[in-house]
Amino acid sequence: MGFEQAWLDYGKKEGYADAERIRYIYADADSAVMKNSVKELRDALAAFTGRDPQVNALSERKEGTGQIESICLVKKEGCRAEGYRLYEEKGGIVVEASDERGILYGVFALIFRMQRQETLAGIDLKKEPAMPLRMVNHWDNMDGSIERGYSGRSFFFENNEILVDERTVTYARLMASVGINGAVINNVNVKDQATYMITEKYFDKLREMSEIFAGYGIRFFMSLNYAAPVELGELDSADPLDEGVAAWWEKRMKIVYDAIPLLGGFLIKADSEGRPGPFTYGRDHADGANMLARAIEPYGGLIIWRCFVYNCRQDWRDRKTDRARSGYDNFMELDGRFRNNVILQIKNGPMDFQVREPVHPLFGGLTKTNQMLEVQIAQEYTGQQRHICYLIPWFKQILEFRTYVKETDDTVRDIVSGKTFGQKNCGMAAVANTGDDENWTGHDLAAANLYGFGRLCYEPELAAQEIAKEWIGLTYGRDQEVEETILFLLMESWPAYEKYTSPLGIGWMVNPSLHYGPSVDGYEYDRWGTYHRADHLGIGVNRSRNGTGYALLYREPHASVYDDMEKCPDELLLFFHHVPYTWKLGSGKTVIQHIYDTHFEGVEMVDEMARRFEELKGKVPEKVYGRVTGRLAHQKEHAREWRDQINTYFYRKSGIPDEKGREIF
Amino acid sequence: MGFEQAWLDYGKKEGYADAERIRYIYADADSAVMKNSVKELRDALAAFTGRDPQVNALSERKEGTGQIESICLVKKEGCRAEGYRLYEEKGGIVVEASDERGILYGVFALIFRMQRQETLAGIDLKKEPAMPLRMVNHWDNMDGSIERGYSGRSFFFENNEILVDERTVTYARLMASVGINGAVINNVNVKDQATYMITEKYFDKLREMSEIFAGYGIRFFMSLNYAAPVELGELDSADPLDEGVAAWWEKRMKIVYDAIPLLGGFLIKADSEGRPGPFTYGRDHADGANMLARAIEPYGGLIIWRCFVYNCRQDWRDRKTDRARSGYDNFMELDGRFRNNVILQIKNGPMDFQVREPVHPLFGGLTKTNQMLEVQIAQEYTGQQRHICYLIPWFKQILEFRTYVKETDDTVRDIVSGKTFGQKNCGMAAVANTGDDENWTGHDLAAANLYGFGRLCYEPELAAQEIAKEWIGLTYGRDQEVEETILFLLMESWPAYEKYTSPLGIGWMVNPSLHYGPSVDGYEYDRWGTYHRADHLGIGVNRSRNGTGYALLYREPHASVYDDMEKCPDELLLFFHHVPYTWKLGSGKTVIQHIYDTHFEGVEMVDEMARRFEELKGKVPEKVYGRVTGRLAHQKEHAREWRDQINTYFYRKSGIPDEKGREIF
User: What does pTM read for this prediction?
Assistant: First the structure.
């Protein structure tokens, strides 16, 4: 399928003197990354001005006339790794960095300023990435399907073959342009043919892809099947303490790295939702991760081990088992036992990418373990890229959450930036929202999440609005009305989605398997540990000290706040407490009236979003207008479905009418 | 896959003198059916006695010695079509009938008596089938899958090819042995390759199959795609009033009948659940059916037209549209407009094969239209052949329902037997429960439904217990404990299933699509028109004169009884009325207490069934014991799941505790 350029779709900038004056690029293109940096700059300038700039070696750089005429790419100590400086000097703009990635990121930063037609004169800024690892995780399967993919099929795989083509390059450019420096290309649920990705069969294509990625500063990762020695038919066991198993992995890693030397390492989902793991052999996750880490250590590889381990065969009648506790309970006692090239990848919340959850208590719990924050921009539970749901404001809240693991520098952001514990192997990963749809992300506005995620990892201090504005400017140009309208849509979208779906932090209430559309009891009598426990009098899960005790897994003052239904923040109340429908929230409303009000409000917000977007007819590309309008029409209808099902369910169950007498069925 | 013989698995009968004395068969095997009759008798006698009887022409028949030494098959006027007499005469047993099918049925009746080692001396009985058409409908797809099939894959189709083999013959023998005289071999949802069954591609195999069927008195039918002229790419329209369309069908039918002269006709599902039909062209179902009927008339063919037509895109918020009314509303006004070779096939109830429904109001409504009753022995909503659910008692109730369309001879049985209106094209059809599982029906005890259905069509006056006993005797022999135990299981099974699933006639409450396992709200907010409308105070659908008016579609006194919540039978109360949980039933219990009590009772009944069956260890074949025990273990657990989900749902919603304080979650 053909594809667009997303936010890399540069066009002629009539009358933009800052770009037009630039005639020269000075750079030493002595490596793939440097070559790509120069090429990006040159192509962009050519697009902006209609003229090719002249590219010369750095040594040929001349004093300028005072006006900005050139761009110089200068490698020089000064910035931290992957950081850059942009400044004006002697009639030129200098992109300075101590490493190639820094140069590449500086180049994109400069291009983006020009794409938005900002003035370059007097520019002087320094940027350094907050997080060492800024990764995307693709849940692409080798048959070409994408687990929880809402933008078409995979562009990495098709019919159990690996695709390397023009789209691979554009993908790498898009990622690099927002500072992504690592990508896992296959689904964490490694099954069937994907188990063979560590065998000779696929090495050539994988190496080719890893080289393209490397040219854009992206480390190439794969997901690994923990039971590979068994499933490849070579051993009877995958016991991590079995020397034969360890030897098998050592040998296998040597073979893999001989073939794909640029490989960054592996992502592993073990003992989770049916995946094999060390539990099978009575071992723990440190045993499993360390065995692989030892095998990969000689090559500088990383083992990224997911903490999404829970009992997915729970009995709904059982109120003692608490899925929310499982990540903490499984991993906390292993703190300090993992090797330095192991990173635990922890979902933002203890459940599974709901529209609202508390922050995962392993953040602030673990102090001696490398940690990576996992978020999901594939909108599995947040509208599946048919609803607009700009997630950056939500990620900001998670990153700014104080864990109180120390007196200062204790936020989730500090932890995954390496600030709290001085770690290097840490960062943030997003489950990607891309596919082979022409516009990459299905919903055109979902691209803001992809763009925003990268930007957030690099500069988490940016406001969500700022990131949104950057993306709008790059994608849709400088029209003020376009910017204001799309910014309005993006910033309204997550609050609106939260309002018209499951209330007050309780989550779920979706159609099983699909995870789309309302079904209040969809998971209530199922085995997944995801309950709301609503009855005639009230709703919510008691996770206080009198309940499952989950609230006490946090450090103070969180533990006391979450544990106390008087103090618990409204938006998480039902996550931590079972309360009567008549319970007065901090807002002064009762729980039931809050449910009714927010559901009516959420729909009104979507109506307003759709109304405002219609005014952009003729101001955004017709194709985009058509696609977005079509999805907004569905979102309007589907938001009503949510509103009516949720309100009806709780009205029928509680028997308490809406104070405002609105229509409930 | 290998297969067993079900109830045709004869064995040596040591010391059974009545069979041992028989040395001769006198018959004129002058046709396929007669040949098969003789073969059946001969094979059975050989199995019983270990000796081959001698087969002679009727003209060689000799006076006997007084003792029964022979069996004579005599065609002679006297019985109605397909009936037979069995009597002793001059040292022989005579099977007498006015047609071949009567002979065949008489032969099986005689074999079955011998298989149960009954005494033959002095035998003298006459049987005539009540219903002219006694049909099975297979929902088999050409890819080998079976829609709502719970016994493996199809034995008619595989990979879009038609299978004709030894199993085809055994199938025909099984059907004939219980009096089935028609079979539709493919799914009523005719899609993909099945549309091509009326083309040259498949004629050879279909003719071959039709000939095997005919040898056992079974008319061969197919399901038809109403839009075939369009989907085969030959016309742009399937408008029944378009002369070109009618001409196409006439030509096509000639081609089909030239190739498959034994074809009985077609079954059609039109304008239903996405299937095409005359509504597409603004025509009605009489237009559609009559056009096909005219085309098939020259060949004596029948068009069996299903009445399962309803709006499957309903809005759950809409309380005016009533799916229960749809069959009546769509077809009642067409009464008298259908040609004589059209039969309307009407499901037993207005919804869809629930564990309890009122009888379809078209029975007793229609007076000038051929009618066939459709039931389902594939246990789609009654445990999917993993739960035991012997349905014959339920079918008996349906057949004995008085419609009051006349003062006498007005039951459903009378109507479909042709007694009420003097019709010939009428009868009963069952959606079959067979597949390529070794035992044909998945659950060994589900074979009682297949056996029982055939017997019931032929002799609807038989009690359900009698039919069960026949089947047990044929299948598991004469052991008294075996008979009593299996009879207990069968007779308890439907009442138990009704008790632990959806209460008081409300139906559904199953997992969407699957139709298996509890999900009280599974269809409550969906588009299928299947709601329970439960709220905090009560439950049920108001179908009285103040509601959808459905109750008034019946003749008096039913209309007044159903319309009045004081008079409505308990088991249908929630089908017709929305009542408070505190409503006192005829039984004296409140609705809510009835729900709790029946759910606990249903589980206890299953426990007792399983306990009793365990005592048969060593008394039924080990294979059967293992299979049935395995399924009973699942049924026990799954019945608990039903009990707990239903009780919990209603306890949480009503807030009313169980009087007996049992555990509800």
Answer: 0.94
